[in-house]
Design brief:
- It is built from one helix and 24 strands.
- By secondary structure, the protein is mainly β.
- The chain has one domain (2-280): Jelly Rolls (Sandwich).
- It has a seven-stranded mixed beta sheet, with no helix packed on it. It has a seven-stranded antiparallel beta sheet with strand order 2-21-18-23-15-14-13. A four-stranded antiparallel beta sheet has the order 5-10-7-8, with no helix packed on it.
- The longest helix has 8 residues, at 19-26.
Amino acid sequence: MYQNTFYATHPDMMIGASQADLRARYLVQGLFEPKGIRLNYLHQERLVIGGVVAGIAPVALPDLEAPESLKGQPFLNNREMGVVNIGTGVAVVQVDGQPLRLLPHDALYIPRGTRAVSFAAEDAAQPVRLYLASTPAHREFPLRHLPLAGAKPLRRGAMETSNARTIYQLIIPGVCESAQLLLGLTVLDTGSVWNTMPPHTHDRRSEAYFYFNLADDARVFHFMGQPDQMRHIVVNNEEAVICPPWSVHTGAGTSNYAFIWAMGGENLDYDDMDQLDICQLA
């Protein structure tokens, strides 16, 4: 049921790694296919990230296939999930028979214990594209529709430093309760290209960045690695990068863009991060 499995890595594995090695270990490609769902399993925090392309015919979240003792159980039996509509059409997500309409950039929190989930487009002329992020969950919280208009926005950066952006906190304490999943959407202003600058690390959580709203001829240069041993990966539209706890995560694009950040870890404190000075980077 998983397109790829990505194993957790030690920072020493970065030493001498080729660009092909970095892309194989940390870059998640092919998240979307015509009329289907694709899931990727990340051993770090047991994150699952994926994409859905759907028309008016519903696409169902699959049941578990392994291990044999859990085969056939609902995917969210012991997990929670965040869903974000990244396309331009209206999505209809059925959660245990309850339909919810997601406008572009709207999100949805689906709790542990949910039996059946399916995704469809409201209009046959506008297929939908949805990004999924899931973590294990130790308890159940309420199902929540999270319109972008109701998100908690934070303004960060400035045009003078090319990093003016709005961070929409979607699944986060004070907005939407969860067991461990934190999720949000960051949108860069026109003329800004840097995200998460100055950078930081999360020693107590792992994260995945999903980049989208990039033109076909645009790219993001995603920087990673320990602060004094930084490397980069060139990212296309609708690709994701795995951010280990020991790694810096920041990036610069050839134009402005948007990205979804999803985290799992030992706490839900958004500000639990180790801030870095730009002069520390090498």
